[in-house]
Specification:
alpha+beta, four-stranded antiparallel sheet, 4 helices, 44% helix
């Protein structure tokens, strides 16, 4: 964590120095003279950008802290992917026979570990291919998965697709394997796009309003500096922060 703090402080100092020297040189080259009062404008712009980077790293760090398997959940746009969560398969399923009776089926895997099925009485009976409903027990609470039905109450399937069973939480079991389907989270993508877009906009605002570059010069420089920051600064720094956020493996026990 100290390394991350040190990198952020170094980034802050570099940004202030780069914006001061770069603005002084570039505006003297393309304009008549550089903007006045650069002594406070460049530090203000560098501080604003550094603070946003800190906020971005904290958001990404907390996301990985809560989900150690995630990578760049809110990171640079070139690293973003549609986040999918694959739940653990259920070990037991219950099929109602009548209002008071449910038959328990246990998950088993074949010898080569490729196929799974749910069986009753140590493999003597295989679970029906399309049961009327499926019950699972989670934390001593029963959850019912109902099959998709059409308006006539018949099983509803799309052409070439299996039958799906759904619970009230929106989770899905696929006919055949009866394992939970992956669920895709759109919110991380939207937040990631928002953070990336805001960072680009912040570069533009700092260059245009604080450092007084002309509109199109500010926009072009903002795009270039934004891309450089994503590729060479944010990606490695966030990768380090995510490594810190993930729990460390336990040290192997040694015999005394």
């Amino acid at each position: 964590m100290l390394l991350i703090i040190g990198l952020v402080v170094l980034l802050w100092l570099v940004l202030m120095g780069f914006l001061f020297a770069g603005t002084l040189w570039f505006q003297a080259y393309i304009y008549t003279e550089p903007v006045g009062q650069l002594w406070w404008r460049a530090p203000a712009a560098g501080t604003a950008l550094a603070l946003f980077v800190v906020l971005w790293i904290v958001v990404d760090y907390r996301a990985v802290k809560n989900n150690p398997d995630a990578r760049y959940p809110y990171g640079p746009i070139q690293e973003m992917t549609l986040t999918a969560t694959t739940p653990e398969p259920f070990k037991k399923l219950y099929i109602p026979v009548d209002e008071n009776t449910e038959v328990e089926y246990t998950r088993e895997t074949d010898f080569d570990g490729q196929k799974t099925r749910f069986v009753y009485r140590h493999g003597r009976d295989v679970m029906p291919g399309r049961p009327p409903k499926i019950v699972v027990v989670e934390n001593d609470q029963k959850t019912v998965f109902e099959p998709d039905h059409d308006a006539k109450g018949q099983f509803k399937t799309e052409r070439g697709q299996p039958l799906f069973y759904r619970d009230k939480k929106g989770r899905t079991l696929r006919e055949g394997t009866f394992e939970p389907e992956p669920t895709y989270r759109v919110f991380p993508i939207l937040l990631g796009l928002f953070l990336n877009g805001t960072f680009l906009a912040l570069w533009f605002v700092c260059l245009w309003l604080l450092l007084r570059f002309q509109l199109w010069h500010a926009l072009g420089l903002a795009v270039v500096l934004y891309v450089v920051m994503l590729l060479f600064v944010l990606a490695p720094v966030m990768s380090r922060a995510e490594d810190v956020a993930r729990p460390k493996p336990a040290a192997p026990a040694t015999l005394s």
